[in-house]
Design a protein that fits this description.
The protein is α/β, with parallel strands linked by helices. It is built from eight helices and twelve strands.
């Protein structure tokens, strides 16, 4: 009797910890939004949602089509987005992270409600200014970008660090995001570059400089920071942003764009699950 019980337990343990069983275990998809208007609509679409608070950040755990999904309200800004991404990486071990929400336009060809799939994201907040004496003024177009990840030494003194760091989207996630663009009817969907910084730029010359030199399509305050942390954990990542305004062509701010973006990302998540997620 005892021998049979031990054999049964051994067989059960072998099944649980076999390579095949481990290969079938997958973490959740994490969907990030900085503000309630960028996160709560998606959270409401989860099946069996459960809200939890970790530090100052809210998370909702639930499922979409039977697969685990975590919605993360990152709060605004680069530091908040980085912290929320690190928490998600260590607490939930996601298979993918999608950072989404609203953004301001840099490309005059884009209109409010257009969606940018971030082929790359870049930091627009790390620059070194040239030396100028008192009274010589300031010109932001003369500032040099700093790649804070280029070396372990001083980024300001390292001559090799004066290029802008690009964080590429995961190719599979980007392809899936592209595959559902035919379902979006409120604007066009394009690939582009998302610029991020704890700065709200309203100077058209500055915006034009970013667009011309770094090919930015939009700007906001989270994507590049979240992308950097996701890359540190080797988690596939993509940024998806809808234009809520565009001062380069007088496109007026519309907060409802945040809802449209979540609806689009919901289709991206459903397609990812259908094509890739093991259950």
């Amino acid at each position: 009797m005892t021998r049979n019980l031990n054999l049964a337990l051994l067989a059960a343990c072998s099944a649980v910890f076999s390579p095949l069983a481990l290969a079938q275990v997958s973490g959740p998809i994490v969907v990030q939004g900085a503000m309630p208007v960028e996160a709560e609509r998606f959270a409401q679409r989860l099946d069996n949602p459960r809200e939890e608070q970790i530090g100052g950040w809210r998370f909702w755990r639930g499922t979409v089509d039977g697969y685990p999904v975590v919605v993360s309200e990152t709060l605004k800004g680069m530091s908040n987005a980085a912290a929320a991404t690190a928490i998600a990486a260590t607490q939930f071990h996601p298979v993918a992270i999608i950072n989404q929400g609203t953004a301001g336009g840099h490309d005059p060809a884009l209109k409010v409600y257009d969606i940018v799939l971030g082929k790359y994201s870049v930091s627009l907040g790390a620059f070194k200014t040239p030396k100028k004496a008192a009274g010589e003024g300031s010109d932001s177009r003369q500032w040099q970008p700093m790649d804070l990840l280029a070396s372990k030494g001083s980024a300001g003194e390292d001559k090799n660090a004066h290029t802008i760091r690009q964080f590429p989207a995961d190719a599979k996630l980007l392809a899936i995001a592209e595959s559902v663009k035919g379902s979006y009817t409120q604007g066009k969907v394009v690939e582009g570059v998302i610029g991020s910084a704890d700065v709200w730029n309203s100077e058209l010359d500055r915006i034009g400089y970013f667009h011309e030199n770094y090919h930015t399509s939009v700007e906001e305050m989270e994507t590049a920071s979240a992308a950097q942390i996701a890359a540190s954990f080797n988690i596939p990542f993509v940024g998806i942003r809808v234009l809520s305004n565009n001062i380069t062509n007088q496109g007026k701010y519309d907060p409802q764009t945040g809802l449209a973006c979540q609806d689009y990302v919901y289709q991206v998540v459903k397609t990812y699950i259908a094509k890739n997620a093991s259950r």
